[in-house]
Amino acid sequence: MTGQRLPASGPIAAWRTFWFQDVPPHSLALLRIALGGLGAISVLTLTPVEGFWSTQGLAPVPGGGLGIRRAIADSGFDLAVAWGLFLASLLAFTAAALGYRTATSVVAAFAASVGMTYWNPLPLNGGHYVSAGLLFLLMWTGSGEVLSVDAWLRRRSGDPGRGRVQPIWPLRLMRFQIAVIYLNSGLGKLYHPAWRDGSALHYVLHLNTFARFPQTLPPEWDWVATAGTYVTLVWEVAFPFLLFHRLTRRLALLLGVLLHLGMALTMEVGLFSWVMLAGYIAFLDPYAVARRFTNYFASPPNRSSNPL
Q1: Residue 82: Cβ within 10 Å count
Q2: Read out DSSP for 153-188?
Q3: Could you give the CA distance from residue 185 to residue 166 in angstroms, rounded to a whole number?
Q4: Which of 146, 200, 283, 302 could form a disulfide with 194 if both were Cys (CB 3.0 to 4.6 A apart)?
């Protein structure tokens, strides 16, 4: 019995190309490095160890941590467990960033991210959850094919491989995830009167909770905060729709870079801005990224097959 031959063109072929087109692995490798590095930094910021990782430190609710926290507190090994969780999480993210035993370390980094949200979600912000979602998609890829300790070890063993191509669907889903985050955030802002009347950024920059510097915006510059409020709102709502054309897509991503850098400079948002900017790697042309590292990968025969 022979299999049915798939059409070479038409909607089915376009669908298969959109999701399963083979692309170089370099974008995935850069995402692995960025997310692993940011995850390691995030773990290091959750110190002293007794504050986040210990059952005697900052805890969300009594009995939290999947019910394990109480058993650890009663065992008398609280500090040893805290250091174990801290070091294991740091090791997982560092190994993922380096690309050492990548298939295992990326899964371990994702598990560490999820475990941290169950253990103690209070100090974590939106960037942590975005990173966990991107790591979940990265688990299903060969992100260690290039730019990794694994690739270096393979070359030393006599394997000159330049990295096997990967299906594009994880990058597609990362793009959709980021687009949905922005759209959801923008639509949520529409319910708040401060975003509708243009005063939201003014209040954000004057609240100790968010403002990075004690200086306030001079009254004569308040129009900048108003403009920034509306630009942010319109950009977030429009972001998914701006992705459908190459010119507007570049404009949306450039504006996103500027806004996130501005947030990182002026607001206390943890690693959120840097995680979102790391996710922008998924929007880059995988072939253009690969050519930065090697001439082995030529451009795809049909550039229109990579519309995003």
Answers
A1: 21
A2: HHHHTT-------EESHHHHHHHHHHHHHHHHHHHH
A3: 31
A4: 200
Task: Spell 25-54 as b/e; 16+ CB within 10 A means b.
Answer: bbbbbbbbbbbbbbbbebbeebeebbebbb
What is the Cα–Cα distance from 105 to 113, expressed in whole angstroms?
12
CA distances for 126 relative to 55, 155, 239, 285, angstroms: 23, 39, 18, 26
Contact 169, 19 (CB under 8 A): yes
pLDDT reading at 307 higher than 50? no
Residue 148 pLDDT exceeds 50: yes
How far apart are alpha carbons 100 and 110 in whole angstroms? 15
Q: What is the pLDDT of residues 178-237, one digit of tens each?
A: 999 999 999 999 999 999 998 888 888 887 777 777 777 777 778 888 998 999 999 999
Backbone conformation region of residue 99, classed left if phi is above 0, alpha if psi is from -120 to 50, else beta: left
pTM: 0.87
Distance (Å, whole) CA 275 – CA 132:
10
